[in-house]
């Protein structure tokens, strides 16, 4: 079962802001201050991390960089997995087709004019759409500039994926294509393999415990929902 992408993306936006990607055709996709997502995989990541650090009060260092990467991964997984669950299709989110804008608050806004599907089975299309086309170049840019370890970035990507399926199970419990098997497949292969323990119980939702730290604990009185520190003995550092 597949669904036309533009109407599907319009429906998906109602699930929540992380699932929104505007499919409206535009002669100029940059209208309104949007920029190609590909810019974030080069020098453009610095400005985004600086803005995240300003909002968090941490400055543009490793904590802000980790949070920025996790936030972008969340947006990408949410759109891709949401389309797969609701419509049985994965959109081509290639960096040259996807546009972004940073709002004053909330997640980055995405624009995907004239969306088209990726061919192939859903698990492979999801892997290509996010892990290959986006996370690989994004992680390289973040590692090179901010020195974050691959373990942190892989753990962030896994947390982002699990966050997307949590929302889908809560808000679209009867999705035509169940998303949990897709998530289990993605968590069992590189780059997400070994990033944490994933559990799903019908009617109760999902649980995920990371094996790496996102660094969010360095923000006063804050930890992430998948925090590895919950399972560490007192006195152990991240």
TrEMBL record:
Top-level taxon of the source organism: Bacteria
Keywords: Signal
Pfam assignment, any one: FhuF_C
Signal peptide region: 1-20
Alphabetized InterPro entries for the sequence: FhuF_C
UniProt domain Ferric siderophore reductase C-terminal: residue ranges: 210-229
Protein's name according to its UniProt entry: Fe-S oxidoreductase
Organism expressing this protein natively: Streptomyces albidoflavus
